[in-house]
Specification:
Arc Repressor Mutant, subunit A, two-stranded antiparallel ribbon, 2 domains, alpha/beta
Length: about 300
């Protein structure tokens, strides 16, 4: 039995298809079949039932998969520790984050983390929430700063803070002299927001539905800065968080009196993978930094 046999078995057990599994691990289907047959012979058990081209794990195969995944995780951890030992001070944290967080929160926490741990490097990856959650599930990132995760198997999410969403209008808008509005009052004005794939857009749609407000959406963008600048150009109104490090001329932030518009931001990780010491350090540093924070930012 060798290391590759275990990896091939794990991939096949998850994909349940010889051709697709062989393609993923870049070997021929016949080579994969031989490897699995050899593994079964060495173990003296049948790992898969094969019927009419379909395969599924036997009861013994399911038990063996549990131990195989633990062995592979331990091997990855050992190799990571060896590599770090050979290159002291070169630990890396793969951190992903959503577009709307990168403009204000991330630079602050990275600056403070770098002061405390100058030898730990943070590799960044920015995308929409759905893509980042997929990447995290695939083990391609260590940690992710994102809104709350719902119904995601094998992913944990820990709350950091809540931020208020504001109705934003041009400073020449009829509502600009108000301190607060309801979302229903925005219904008659052109609405600018993010594209449907973004978690912030999904949340905005939910708030609008609660308010029974159905404004005419005239533009869907990829980032809050674009949305804010288009509002400043008097092309419509929107619902976005306030970004104190990036104030926009020509915009008025109005509190929303109904419904209460807030979103929770937290840090997520994959519970099926062993976090590196560096990733744990960043995770705990971030949680501690926001331990007493309830809501931010405000106007």
């Amino acid at each position: 039995m060798d290391f590759n046999q275990l990896k091939y078995f794990q991939v096949l057990a998850n994909i349940k298809h010889f051709t697709k599994a062989a393609k993923q691990i870049s070997i021929s289907q016949s080579a994969l079949s031989r490897s699995i047959s050899k593994l079964e012979d060495e173990l003296g058990i049948t790992l898969f039932n094969r019927q009419n081209g379909n395969i599924h794990l036997t009861q013994q195969g399911q038990k063996f998969l549990i131990h195989t995944e633990r062995i592979l995780r331990e091997m990855d951890t050992a190799l990571n520790e060896i590599n770090l030992a050979e290159q002291p001070g070169h630990g890396v944290v793969n951190l992903s984050f959503t577009h709307s967080i990168g403009g204000y929160f991330l630079p602050i926490i990275l600056r403070e983390f770098n002061k405390a741990y100058p030898d730990i490097k943070v590799k960044l990856n920015q995308h929409n929430t759905a893509y980042l959650i997929h990447q995290l599930s695939e083990g391609k990132n260590d940690l992710c700063l994102c809104p709350a995760i719902l119904n995601s198997e094998n992913l944990a999410w820990e709350y950091l803070w809540s931020e208020e969403l504001f109705a934003v209008v041009p400073d020449v808008h009829p509502l600009a002299d108000r301190e607060s509005v309801t979302l229903q009052e925005l219904e008659s004005y052109p609405f600018i927001t993010l594209k449907p794939s973004y978690s912030l857009r999904i949340l905005v749609d939910q708030f609008l539905e609660v308010a029974n407000s159905h404004p005419n959406i005239v533009f869907e963008g990829d980032d809050i800065s674009t949305v804010a600048n288009l509002v400043a150009a008097n092309l419509g109104v929107s619902l976005i968080p306030c970004i104190p490090t990036n104030e926009y001329a020509g915009i008025k932030y109005l509190s929303v009196s109904f419904p209460i518009c807030q979103r929770a931001i937290g840090i997520a990780w994959n519970t099926t993978q062993q976090l590196s010491d560096e990733a744990i350090t960043f995770q705990q540093f971030t949680l501690k930094s926001f331990a007493n924070v309830k809501k931010l930012p405000h106007r």
